[in-house]
Specification:
Strand content of chain D: under 5%
Membrane topology (chain D): Multi-pass membrane protein
Number of domains of chain B: 2
Protein name (chain D): ABC transporter permease
CATH topology of the largest domain in chain B: Rossmann fold
Keywords (chain D): Cell membrane, Membrane, Transmembrane, Transmembrane helix, Transport
Number of strands of chain B: 20
CATH architecture of the largest domain in chain B: 3-Layer(aba) Sandwich
CATH superfamily of the largest domain in chain B: P-loop containing nucleotide triphosphate hydrolases
Organism (chain D): Lutimaribacter marinistellae
Bound molecules: adenosine-5'-triphosphate, magnesium ion
Largest interface: C-D, 93 and 92 residues
Structural class of chain B: alpha+beta
Distance between the termini of chain B: 36 Å
Helix content of chain D: over 70%
Order of helices and strands of chain B: EEEHEEEHHHEHEHEEHHEEEEEEEEEE
Strand order of the largest sheet of chain B: 6-7-8-3-9-10
Structural class of chain D: mainly alpha
Shape of chain D: globular
Number of strands of chain D: 0
Family (chain D): Belongs to the binding-protein-dependent transport system permease family. CysTW subfamily.
Distance between the termini of chain D: 52 Å
Number of helices of chain B: 8
Oligomer: heteropentamer
Largest sheet of chain B: 6 strands, mixed
Strand content of chain B: 35-45%
């Protein structure tokens, strides 16, 4: 095959190396653009009426908003995946199946192929404090001694507070279905967030913001994506570390989707098959610090990475059973939540 | 060679009449000037002749042909604008040859003709300069050459010298006159400078408020103004208002505030008419006590101004009206002290009686 | 029409066509129509409850489809197992279990054919129910979607003033922009005056160059340069710590201060040049005349220079205010957790919230605010548009 | 006044301060203007990477420039910026000129109304132009992208161009066009031979400024650009919180270009002024020469005997 | 009343000497003018007197007091700028009262004094107009009133009339003179218009290239110029270069290209000195064939210009030098055709012999 494929991906997902390997194997050139938030990719694609890219990588749980937006605009943003064109058997079936619970399908048709998953837990400066997977709590970041030294993502911050208050996560799950519950959950979370706002130094939105918070702005603790945190861990020789809190790290899964206006559909499938192969997924895991959906991708990780994994989730991945998954999000839910976020941000 | 006729031409801008019933004929080869105060409609007449404005009423003929509907680019006239309007981005010769260029002449022919004209205006070999490198007087000459290049029958000049300083202006006047005599082209010239109009022109039209006051030779206009406006606008004049009490031998006798005075009666005033008597300051003299000229006016000296070569005597008549006398600075003036009583005399032929109309 | 014919007389048909067509495209197609359409968009309002209802119905349907898919797949496996006589291979359905590494297949061994058949019947029954539920949902959806159609309402405008998150931001943005304008004015007036009146010709040329260079440097870079200075580990803190004045870095970027500093810096030159231009036209003799008549310096400024420079001051203020109120780059780059700018809210409505109607309404309100400010300044300083656009 | 030798002592201090105060203020002001830029540029040569900083300066390096030039997405963004820039130049000049011609020739009321409308984009916050253009074209089926961004930018950049053309046209002597007509030129010839050459310098400078404005525009573009990106958008994204010194390297290049352009501009301006002055002097010298020649000849004639 | 002394005052701008060793005294109550070509240093002298520039060398005294170190706001002088420098955003009376306002007078007193001054300058009741609503001449008067409001001992005027048109200028001259006589304030007046300087001033200083050429009464300057520069700058003069061959009875005999001519020898030239003879055009006449004046020059008529009340005769001497004669337009000029030979005569007392130095 030949040609090119236009990819709209999160920052720091696809390395130069991966693109070269893929191009050498397939003859297809990858044109990469990056985004920083799920809303950004959705609304940009909305503004471009689904045109301009052949593959986009939103979180699977956000796909519900894509379906809603498509219906509202009268213009589907994504096209259904032809599962027969996926290389069979290379994606971990439990992940593949889990993605359906997170909203990968609409009326039975699949729109997103799981690409990777990751968590949002606590990053911390090990020179200032120490946290371990057994004991770390979301509450640790709100301690008074870190006032003005913490970084948090507004969206997941409210969610983690809700999770912390709730304990079980049950009410939070219900909030995704019921507007009244959602109001209740978020007003409680907001109240806590407002009281503790002086603790916050940086509201981050993108991986770039997050890195800056810990490097340029001197934050010592805060919520972070695991991949970003692991990259900082590597960069700072272990000064910045990461842990999954006991209430459960916030867990997401990103998918590979084909926009309705894609022109290079064949090339898109080819790239999807590469990215979900052990080789592609492995390279991604090494490069980004996230976890691939491909079977056997973890084999690519070195000993240090394995060691890090144990420090985050426990020697046998005990914390993984505890993960709290982002639920499929309808448009009304994210609008409602963003109102609370704005209030928090602008207070 | 084509003559120009204006036949009862009127031009209105909205309600405002800029030119009113102008009728005149300009002979081919003439140097003809329009003279008048600012805003009297001179430029407007010129723009009508060259085709930038169309008359509201009346007909303009050039060489007998009605010009209505013929654009400026198709008339046998060339206009030299008040500010010359040379093309600043073209060289001197390109300016001169512009009219030929738009007529499709070859570059070589353009250049040759431009060089001829440069010789004519005494700027040989200066064709490759830029316009901005020329002096004011040289620019003037280039503008003329540019206008002449298309061999117009008529050259229209709108106050071409008003921007120049005095010395240069005097020089350029002579140049212009010389060029006109050399080429034989009809020159129509606009100015509000009477010195300019009088020294250069074959004939002059004096305008005021859109109308023609008098069309005549310069000497005629100076010596025999047709109206009170002309008498006061052209040169200085001492006006004396009164009414006619007697008419005899081509002279009229006027009863004025300064006494009964005699003057020429070229306009055939009759007894009882309101009239003005005009006498020029230089035609007056301080009368010797023993003199008995025809007209004598008693005044008192107010001021004596020494202005270079001349002495101006300002005097005031018994009833308050002012009187000015010009004398050259070569007389004994010791007796003309402030407040001295003097008799001012002038001959009846030096004065002229005109109907009492608007003055300048 | 008269304009066209007089224009045509002067320029001929071709040029006249170019000029009028060009102006029409620009004026109507690029200035007026887009604004009108933006206003129209801002009036489109969808009832959020209705939209939520639609969305909830749809996602319920989606979940039913997922369940249906899983049931069908299991059914197929059970059928196969029954065929092979109750083998031990059926997958229990991995729906809830997440095992990212290693094998996931929890085989349900040892089920009998009878058990399998029982399960098959249960599944078949369930599939029938699912089909009914989907049909019911779809029928209800038609009604719900009707209710969720966008309508022309002023709701988006009320939203700004009823939303107690956005309203304070709006007023804060206006107030801060006025503050930026005032600071820039105070800083710039002496500079402009010095350039226009006191400096010698050569110095003026040099100083003007010194002003033009930062003026031409990208706004982003100008802002970025302050980011480097103000961040916790930035140049200023480094210098302070190095010099021993402080040992803990100072948080320069807390609150609004960094944004204000950045804006003053980014837009100050839009204040200098208009004032300079007007002061420069002041006849220096007027200053000398005032001095000759005995006026002290400050009084000369008050009574002669400032009244003369009024149009320039008005223009500078208008430009600075408009740029500050409409700035997106500076607050985004220098902002803190409490410095949100109104433009960021507008951006979020477009590219985060996906609510174009609300975004358009907010944008229109900002536009109106700027127009009001401009008209106030023009009134106050008695200047007209011609003075502004120079 | 400063070189006076007669300052009386009791005024000395006050005068000393008053004389130097403005200079001091100006010096401070320019430090304020340039210091941030200077530190930003220094950081581009510092080996410290995270975060880029000028202090402490740990070692001189050029590697960030190398990194910059091998950054493919950045280079693609540059290409987009250039494409938009060129489009904007063409469109803005065309529209700006048509507006300027119409306004300079129109009378009274219509003129000021049209003027108000055509300069209004300059007084409109950039994001609003971006938004309205996006909304407009989106509803016409054209998604955000290079084309829409170019149109959005042109909306106000054309106003800049128009103002420059108006300024130039106001100095245009209408008599020049009439003179050409009077000499027999057609309307098109007049425009080609007289009006366009007169406007040429403005076309060049306005084109340049239009390009610069387009190249550095952020507030308008960020809305209208859709999924594409330009250098400035990219730069803003890079610079937000975790800039790498590559951004500083880019800044150095930007500023260097700006300084060079500004200096060239100033040099050209001065050369023009000097040339015009020289021409004016030469012209008046020529006039003087003519006069003094006449007087000289009188004297010479007198001496000859 | 304070007199003004300049004692050997020099001012240099860098290398350039704008004013060179100026020494003069201006009496209190005098109307004193500086006359000179553009750039000769007139404005600079005025700015030194009013305190905007300090002399590089020399002393300026006003009323006997050394002015060094005293700023413009503390000197008893008021300057009226060339362009008036009225404050355009203030009303007429606010302009006039500005000096009083900075002195802290109450608004009522300001207004009262402004009204007095408005009466004085014949603009009663016009105080509430804006400056832009005034005519040129009215603005002029307001500028004077503003300067007078602070009761200066000396009023300095820098070419105040140069922007006005001829008619208004003549009118304003008379006004200025009248105001000066009424107030008795010392007026120091700058102009490059000789007519203005000569008609208005008690005394005139003629300047050239930073130096004072002559300080004297107008009549003296016209009749007895001290240098060749003054002779040619003030009024028209026919210059004839030559050298002195005889000196007798206060007269010098010069050998010139036009023959041997006699002239007054006020500057005591001696035999052999290079000299110039000057005779004014109006002191010459066309000599009757039978006349035998002291000096006779043979020329040929080149041109005869009729300019209103005067006739200018341009003639060229045998060796090419030009000669101009002014006559009033009341003589018989029929014999003065182009190319006619004429003898031009003038008396020895009408001519003056001066050292051959730089002319204007
Ligand atoms: N386009 C126009 N519309 C209306 N009025 C006009 C127009 N052009 C000229 N006028 C008026 O017509 C009158 C005559 O104008 P014109 O230009 O002919 O005067 P002029 O005699 O040339 O004066 P000047 O000596 O000042 O040039 C003036 O009062 C002028 O205001
Ligand atoms: N600030 C200055 N620096 C340098 N040279 C100056 C300065 N001011 C004036 N000059 C020079 O000093 C000379 C005298 O200037 P001044 O203004 O006194 O002339 P002026 O006699 O008033 O001329 P004008 O009639 O043109 O006003 C001029 O050659 C001028 O160029
Ligand atoms: Mg005219
Ligand atoms: Mg001067």
């Amino acid at each position: 095959a030949s040609g090119e494929v236009n990819v709209y991906s999160w920052d720091a997902y696809i390395s130069e190396d991966m693109m070269q390997t893929f191009e050498a194997a397939s003859g297809i050139k990858v044109n990469l653009s990056t985004f920083g938030t799920n809303n950004e990719v959705l609304n940009k694609l909305r503004a471009s009426k689904g045109e301009g890219f052949d593959i986009v990588l939103p979180s699977i749980s956000s796909l519900q908003s894509w379906y809603d937006a498509g219906a509202e605009d009268g213009n589907e943003l994504l096209q259904p995946i032809d599962e027969t064109r996926l290389t069979a058997g290379q994606i971990n079936p439990s992940i593949y199946e889990k993605s359906l619970d997170l909203g990968a399908s609409q009326r039975g048709a699949r729109y997103g192929v799981p690409f990777n998953w990751g968590t949002e837990g606590l990053a911390f400066n090990s020179e200032e404090l120490d946290l371990t997977w057994e004991t770390a709590s979301w509450n640790d970041q709100w301690k008074g001694e870190y006032a003005g030294k913490m970084a948090i993502r507004p969206r997941s911050g409210l969610t983690s507070i809700a999770l912390m208050i709730d304990g079980t996560g049950k009410m939070l799950d219900d909030a995704y279905q019921d507007e009244a519950v959602a109001h209740e959950v978020f007003s409680k979370a907001l109240e806590f967030g407002m009281d503790h706002k002086p603790n916050i130094k940086v509201f981050w939105k993108t991986a770039a913001d997050l890195t800056g918070a810990f490097t340029a702005d001197g934050c010592v603790v805060g919520q972070s994506w695991d991949g970003t945190a692991i990259n900082m861990w590597k960069e700072t020789d272990g000064k910045i570390r990461y842990v999954s809190p006991k209430e459960g790290a916030l867990t997401w899964m990103d998918g590979l989707c084909i926009p309705s206006g894609a022109v290079n559909v064949d090339q898109a499938y080819e790239l999807i098959n590469f990215l979900t192969s052990a080789q592609g997924g492995g390279m991604h895991a090494v490069h980004s610090g996230y976890n691939s959906s491909a079977i056997g991708a973890e084999a690519a990780l070195d000993a240090a990475a394995q060691e890090r994994f144990k420090m985050i989730y426990g020697p046998n991945g005990e914390a993984i059973a505890n993960l709290w998954w982002w639920k499929p999000e309808a448009g009304w839910f994210s609008k409602l939540r963003s109102e609370y976020i704005t209030r928090w941000e602008t207070a | 060679m084509k003559n120009i006729e204006l036949d009862n031409v009127t031009l209105r801008f909205g309600d405002f009449t800029a030119v009113r019933n102008a009728t005149l004929e300009i002979e081919a080869g003439e140097f003809f000037s329009f003279l008048g105060p600012s805003g009297c409609g001179k430029t407007t007449i010129l723009r009508m002749i060259s085709g930038f404005n169309d008359p509201t009423e009346g007909v303009i003929r050039i060489g007998g042909r009605d010009m209505a509907g013929i654009g400026p680019n198709d008339r046998p006239t060339s206009l030299i604008f008040q500010n010359l309007a040379l093309f600043p981005l073209m060289s001197v010769w390109e300016n001169i040859a512009y009219g030929l260029r738009v007529r499709g002449l070859s570059k070589k022919d353009q250049r040759r003709r431009a060089d001829e004209l440069l010789d004519m205006i005494a700027l040989p070999g200066q064709g490759d300069k830029m316009v901005s490198e020329l002096s004011g007087g040289q620019k003037q000459r280039v503008a003329i050459a540019r206008a002449l290049a298309v061999e117009p029958a008529v050259l229209l000049l709108d106050e071409p010298l008003s921007a120049l300083d005095l010395k240069l202006r005097q020089h350029m006047r002579a140049e212009l006159r010389a060029i006109q005599q050399r080429t034989g082209v009809t020159f129509i010239y606009i100015t509000h400078d009477q010195g300019e109009a009088l020294t250069m022109s074959d004939r002059v039209a004096v305008m005021s408020q859109g109308g023609l006051e008098q069309v005549a030779t310069p000497a005629e206009i100076y010596a025999n103004p047709a109206t009170a406006f002309v008498a006061t606008f052209v040169g200085e004049n001492n006006p004396l208002a009164g009414h006619v009490v007697d008419v005899r031998n081509g002279h009229a006798v006027l009863d004025t505030s300064m006494g009964t005075l005699r003057a020429r009666n070229d306009r055939n005033l009759s007894i009882g008419d309101k009239a003005m008597l005009f006498v020029r300051p230089e035609r007056c003299h301080v009368a010797r006590p023993d003199a008995a000229p025809e007209n004598l006016v008693s005044t008192r000296v107010e001021r004596l101004d020494l202005e270079g070569s001349y002495i101006n005597l300002f005097a005031r008549g018994t009833c308050g009206s002012r009187f000015v006398v010009h004398m050259t600075n070569n007389q004994d003036i010791s007796h003309l002290q402030r407040n001295a009583d003097v008799q001012i005399g002038f001959s009846a032929d030096a004065a002229i009686a005109l109907p009492a109309t608007r003055m300048a | 029409m008269e304009a066209i014919s007089s224009f045509r007389k002067r320029y001929g048909a071709i040029l006249t066509a170019y000029v009028f067509v060009g102006c029409a495209i620009w004026l109507i197609g690029m200035i007026v129509a887009p604004q009108l359409l933006m206003v129209q968009k801002s009036l489109m309002y969808t009832d959020p409850a209705a939209a939520a209802a639609v969305s909830q119905m749809k996602s319920a349907t989606d979940r039913l489809f997922v369940e249906k898919g899983r049931a069908e797949r299991e059914l197929r496996r059970i059928e196969a197992d029954i065929q092979t006589g109750g083998s031990a291979g059926a997958d229990q359905g991995s729906g809830g279990v997440f095992s990212p590494f290693g094998s996931t297949a929890k085989r349900n061994t040892g089920a009998t054919v009878a058990e399998l058949e029982q399960r098959r019947d249960a599944l078949t029954l369930r599939l029938g129910q699912i089909a009914d539920e989907i049909a019911a949902n779809d029928a209800a959806l038609v009604q719900a979607e009707k209710a969720a159609k966008p309508r022309v309402r002023l709701q988006n405008y009320f939203e700004l003033f009823s939303n107690d998150a956005n309203r304070p931001i709006f007023f804060k943005t206006i107030w801060s922009s006025i503050l930026v304008t005032a600071i820039a004015l105070v800083v710039c007036y002496p500079v402009a005056f010095y350039l226009a009146v006191s400096a010698s010709k050569d110095t003026t040329a040099l100083l003007m160059l010194g002003l033009i260079v930062p003026y031409w440097v990208n706004e982003i870079l100008r802002t970025f340069s302050w980011l480097m200075l103000l961040s916790t580990n930035g140049v200023i803190n480094q210098a302070l710590i190095w010099s021993g004045l402080t040992d803990t870095p100072i948080d320069w970027r807390g609150g609004n201060s960094a944004v204000l500093i950045g804006m003053v810096y980014a837009y100050i030159l839009f204040m200098v040049f208009p004032i300079y231009n007007t002061v420069e036209t002041l006849d220096r003799n007027q200053i000398e005349a005032a001095r000759d008549l005995g006026a002290p310096r400050w009084f000369i400024h008050w009574s002669v220079v400032i009244p003369h420079a009024k149009p320039g001051i008005a223009v500078g203020c208008i430009m600075t205010f408009m740029l500050a109120a409409g700035s997106y780059a500076v607050p985004v780059m220098l902002g803190s957790t409490t410095s949100k700018w109104f433009t960021e809210i507008i951006y979020d409505q477009f590219y985060e919230g996906g609510n174009w109607g609300l975004g358009s309404a907010y944008a229109f309100v900002l536009l109106i605010t700027c127009i009001l400010f401009i008209m106030t300044m023009m009134r106050l300083f008695r200047v007209n548009l011609q003075d502004i656009a120079r | 006044m400063s070189d006076t030798t007669h300052i009386q002592p009791r005024f000395a201090l006050g005068a000393w301060v008053m004389d130097r105060l403005p200079g001091l203020y100006m010096a401070l002001f320019f430090v304020y203007m340039f210091m941030p830029l200077a530190f930003m540029m220094i950081a581009a040569f510092n080996t410290t990477a995270v975060p880029p900083t000028a202090l402490p300066f740990e070692g001189f390096t050029l590697k960030w420039f190398g990194a910059l030039f091998s950054n493919a997405p950045l280079l693609a963004a540059v290409a987009n910026s250039l494409i938009i820039g060129l489009g904007v130049v063409v469109l803005s000049l065309t529209l700006g000129l048509s507006g300027a011609l119409l306004i300079t020739r129109l009378h009274a009321r219509a003129k000021s109304v049209l003027y108000a409308f055509l300069v209004s984009p300059l007084l409109t916050p950039g994001i609003i132009l971006g938004i309205s253009t996006l909304v407009f074209w989106n509803s016409a089926g054209m998604p955000g992208g290079l084309f829409v961004a170019g149109l959005a930018q042109s909306t106000f950049i054309a106003s800049y161009c128009m103002l420059m053309f108006i300024a130039r046209l106001q100095r245009f002597d209408n008599a020049l066009e009439e003179a050409a007509l009077d000499l027999g030129a057609s309307h098109q010839q007049v425009f080609r031979h007289i009006t366009m050459p007169f406007l040429k310098p403005t076309i060049i400078t306005a084109g340049l400024i239009a390009f610069l404005q387009s190249f550095e525009n952020f507030n308008t573009t960020v809305f209208a650009i859709g999924t594409e990106t330009t250098l400035t958008i990219k730069l803003a994204a890079l610079a937000r919180r975790t800039p790498t010194p590559e951004v500083n390297a880019l800044a150095v290049i930007f500023i260097a270009l700006t300084v060079v352009m500004a200096i060239l501009w100033e040099v050209k301006r001065r050369a023009d002024a000097a040339r015009e002055k020289a021409i004016a002097e030469r012209a008046s010298d020529a006039d003087k020469d003519m006069v003094s020649l006449q007087i000289g000849s009188v004297v010479a004639a007198g001496e000859a005997k």
